[in-house]
Amino acid sequence: MEKILENELFVASDISKLPQFVNAEIFNMGISSIKAQIIAPITSKEKIIGFWGLDQETKSLEWQEDHLNFMKIIANILGDTLTRIDAEKELNFMAHYDEITKLPNRNLFTNFLYFSIVKQEFTQTHLGVVFLDLDSFKVVNNTVGHGMGDELLYLVGEKIKRLMKKTDLVSRFSGDEFLIMISHIENKGEMALIAEKLMNLFYEPFILKGQEFFMTASAGIALYPIDGKDPEELIMNADIAKIKAKEKGRNQYLLCSSEMKEEVNRQNQLTNHLYRALEKGELIVNYQPQVCLSTGRVTGVESLLRWQHPELGLISPAVIIPLAEKTSLINPIGEWVLETACRQNKAWQVMGVEPILMAVNISASQLKNPNLISQIEGILKRTGLSPAYLEVEITESTAILELGEIIGKLNSLKELGVSIAIDDFGTEYSSLSRLKMLPLDRLKMDKQFVDGIGFNHKDQSIANAIIQLGKSLGLAVVAEGVEKEKQVAFLRTSQCDLIQGYYYYKPLDALEIEKILRRQG
Q1: Nearest to 378 by CA among 416, 410, 424
Q2: How distant is the alpha carbon of residue 452 from its chain centre?
């Protein structure tokens, strides 16, 4: 029947005159008494999807023009109606299902979870919501393309579906994230067993076009009614637990707890306050002296951001910086710290004290800012500080990311005349091949190696190796976190250049630093 054209009618006053294939269909249906027949094709989206017709069983009939027009009109109406029904089905699918995995989407999952919560009121069991996120999924997209990545998402969804019961629901939340509702849970122990089975799904590789892909996942779990009374709260708390699972090292699951929720609420409150902290003048900069071991003189200071919260007291940069990096605040706050530190260093020089080096930490987010170089150049011009008295500190973890871009930025800083130090050296992926490519002036040895000096032979060996490495590369070495006489003695014997820590000075305000500089002058 493929040869039938749109709107072509099969008309016969004598049934025997119909095309052979139509006649055969009629007799196959056991309709042998038809004397005359008219058949119209029904089309949808330019394809024939069926037929409809009129039969005459009593006598042969000459079909009139009105009959033919009527047949075409009805066929068109049927075709349009079926096309609209198909379109509505497609729209309904798009509104409630994910195109890639064919799983329910977030909206359908939320609605289903709502009605499941209503039914749960009449039982003594719990509902579990699992928020699952694939670890390092971007690597798949970047290495084999988004098409293969989509196929992997589909396979993950199918694997999870096969594990779940019919009363459970698996949904694709977004990106590489899945939501799973598990019904009729007796207690947290049972939920943990199900979570273990879920994580075990990722022990076996996924096969894509004959190639094996090993994936891991992190998951967070929230239980109704313990962790929330509505879908939004349950999903949010499962997401909180998932984030904490990732922070602990990925490839694991965590059940939501009251401690997690309290910590997140506190972080949210702090984030909201942080938006106003700069304009309210709550941010301050303290300075910790760096002492030259050979002379005992303060030759530099490290600027340290502090937040004097009116209710919570003094908040350290270990809390401020991660909060700022999660928002758009890291660049304006970082710029403010840079300018404050440079302006203060110039102010000390104007007082007539011996010039010292001002070290300022630059976060990974700041280093990625395309305007960083012009920003620093502008600050130096506004404050009048010579670039020779500014040092930019980057962490070792920052130095190993996107090496080409970072080297370009650091070279631009060197051209300005700014010196560069690597902070927390030895704690991340210390690569000598990367180290020799970076335009550095100083290494800052991490406190964890200094802490072991005097009783831990390995820490002493590492500390000594870092000092000798720095000297062989022509770099000055600063030991951080020095607090004890034994540490100072060892570092002096090992010919470390500078020390920074409570043994000499804790972080101080600008006035206290001024007094120290005047005394030694």
Answers
A1: 416
A2: 36
User: What is the 8-class DSSP label of residue 17?
Assistant: G
Residue 35: phi and psi, rounded to 5, are: -100, -35
Q: Across residues 233-250, what is the average pLDDT? A: 88
Specify the DSSP element, H or E, that contains 158. helix 146-163
CA–CA separation, 224 and 181 (whole Å): 11
Contact 55, 37 (CB under 8 A): yes
**Residue 7 to residue 92: CA distance in whole angstroms:** 30
Total number of residues shown for the chain: 521
Q: What is the pLDDT of residue 299?
A: 95
Contact 204, 156 (CB under 8 A): no
Claim: this prediction has a pTM higher than 0.85: no
Cβ atoms 42, 51 nearer than 8 A = yes
Annotate 303-320 with three-state secondary structure: EEEEEEECCCEEECHHHH
CB atoms within 10 A of CB 515: 10
Positive or negative, the Cα torsion across 488, 491, 496, 502? negative
pLDDT tens, residue by residue, 25-80: 444 444 456 667 677 777 877 777 777 777 766 666 676 677 777 878 887 888 77
pLDDT band at 18 (very low <50, low <70, confident <90, very high): very low
Query: Which tokens sit at 261?
Result: 């929720």
Instruction: Report which of residues 1 and 445 the model is more confident about.
Output: 445
Distance CA 476, CA 362 (A): 19
Handedness of CA 476, 480, 483, 484 (dihedral sign): negative
* Site of tokens 């802490």: 451
> Nearest 5°: phi and psi at 510?
-60, -35
Tokens matching residue 112: 């289903």
3-state secondary structure at position 298: strand
Q: Note whether 464 and 483 are within 8 A (CB).
A: no
Which helix (DSSP H) or strand (DSSP E) does residue 421 occupy? strand 419-425
Q: What is the pLDDT of residues 125-156, one digit of tens each?
A: 888 999 998 887 877 777 778 888 888 888 98
Task: List the structure tokens of 306.
Answer: 């502090």
